[in-house]
Amino acid sequence: MSGVFDTDVAVLAATEVPYRRRVESGVGTGDLLAQAVIDAVERAGFSLDDVDGLAVSSFTHAPDRAVDLAWSLGLRTRWFMDDGCGGVSGFNTLQHAWRALQAGDADLIVLVAGDVFQADDFSRLVDHYNQTTRNWLRPLEYGGPNGVFAMLTTRQMQRYGLQRADYGRLAVAQREWAMLNPGAVYRTPLSLETYLDAPMVADPLGLYDCVPVVSGANALVLARTDRARGRHARIAGFAARHNPDGQQGDGLATGLRQVAGELWRQSGIGPGDIQLAAIYDDYPAMVLAQLDDLGFIADGDYAGFIQRELATRRFPVNTSGGQLSAGQAGTAGGMHGIVEVARHLMGEADERQVPQARYGLASGYGMVEYRYGMCAAAVILEAGGGS
Predict the structure, then answer these.
(1) How many alpha carbons fall within 13 Å on the CB side of residue 239?
(2) Do 97 and 134 fall within a single domain?
(3) Same domain, yes or no: 32 and 49
(4) Which of 255, 343, 348, 370 has the fewest CB atoms within 10 Å distance of its CB?
(5) Is 140 in the same domain as 269?
(6) Across the chain, which distance is largest between two alpha carbons, in Å?
(7) What is the domain count for the chain?
(8) Is 150 in the same domain as 167?
């Protein structure tokens, strides 16, 4: 007899409130989150009255929480949660919503993530990210994670024989994808020469290696697959590992390395079956680290993989332009990739659509404690429903 946790769960809608460098006067985080929820529920073919589960991820929604957003939208929920874990927020809420739907704790759940950053908001966030940052790093005026990841990138270059041009080819390829995405904030063509000549931020990281901060929101609507109306994206596998090395490692491997086997076993497929991937890209080095941890790069040949698969766009990675070109809207960055993969599997990616995509993977990474990101997660989605 099949149990409740054998129930299939699907993404019914995936939306994005357009990212932008600046929002209009008077527009706050709650406004963008509400818009994302309304748009997603409408796209899924339901009404707000049908929603009985809500999860919110945001740095700047405070002091409000999920229940405050539910109240402002007139929702009466049976299940809700808050998450502020940055690059894995969307994955954390997805994991919990998946189980809640399987257990019958809710029937229709909306996951929403987003932030609005005004002039000083991001600097304040960087200085007070957590107690470690506030008490130990801020007094040193360390200026955020760029310097930390510059050192990580240098180690990766030395270990795998990479040059700055290799990272540049990754950034240029993502910009080419962004040019097909009207929602990307940065769509101006980027050449390798321009990448290499850009101002240095923290050697070897230049301007185009560092994720640009924007404002925006993303949302997903989840339900059991028997409630799906038309095309959807079924959850085929999920894995996460947080604080895998106690901040004692060199940063060149993420928690995904420890759980990749579990992810592929759950889904019943392997890396060669994935038609597109959205890899959390706060820095190019971390795209390569996660791809390697997940089994996409053979024999540590990072440079060859970039030239064969990424620069040519033969393997579609970060087809939205990724955060490096679409922008990073705070915690929305942890949901952006899931939304992008789901759009492709539902045939909603417009000019950048990967033809006949059946399987897609999204990964999240982030939450710097003292050195590197502590959290990592990945989900495999499978196309479902009619054409």
Answers:
(1) 19
(2) no
(3) yes
(4) 370
(5) yes
(6) 63
(7) 2
(8) yes
At 1, the pLDDT band (50, 70, 90 cuts) reads very low
How does 312-337 read in b/e, with b if 16+ C-beta sit within 10 Å?
eeebbbbbbbbbbbbbbbbbbbbbbb
The domain boundary, picked from 178, 204, 232, lies at 232
Q: Which helix (H) or strand (E) segment is 194 a member of? A: helix 192-197
Please report the beta strands in the chain, taking only residues with DSSP state E, as ranges in sequence order: 9-20, 53-57, 79-83, 108-115, 200-202, 205-206, 215-224, 232-242, 276-279, 359-368, 373-384
H or E stretch covering 284: helix 284-293
Co-location of 195 and 319 in the same domain: yes
Of the residues 171, 204, 232, which one is the last residue of a structural domain? 232
Alpha-carbon span 318 to 108, nearest angstrom: 28
Looking up residue 173, the CATH number of its domain turns out to be: 3.40.47.10
Q: Which residue in 345, 326, 228 sits closest to 276, CA to CA?
A: 345
pLDDT per position as a tens digit, 211-263: 999 999 999 999 999 999 899 999 999 999 999 999 999 999 999 999 999 99
Pair 220, 278 in one domain: no
Token pair 């490692």 is found at: 249
- 140/17 same-domain check: no
Burial classification of residue 74, based on how many CB atoms lie within 10 Å of its CB (0-12 exposed, 13-18 middle, 19 or more buried): exposed
Tell me which residue has tokens 């040949």: 301
User: Which of 150, 151, 158, 152 minimizes the C-alpha distance to 302?
Assistant: 158
Q: What does each C-alpha distance from 191 to 54, 149, 209, 299, 351 come to in angstroms?
A: 42, 23, 14, 29, 21
Same domain, 12 and 109: yes
Q: Which residue has the higher pLDDT, 229 or 333?
A: 333
Residue 209 — φ and ψ, nearest 5°?
Answer: -95, -15
**Domain range for 178:** 127-212+235-384
Question: Peptide bond before 145: cis, by omega within 30 degrees of 0?
Answer: no
pLDDT tens by residue, 82-112: 998 999 999 999 999 999 999 999 999 999 9
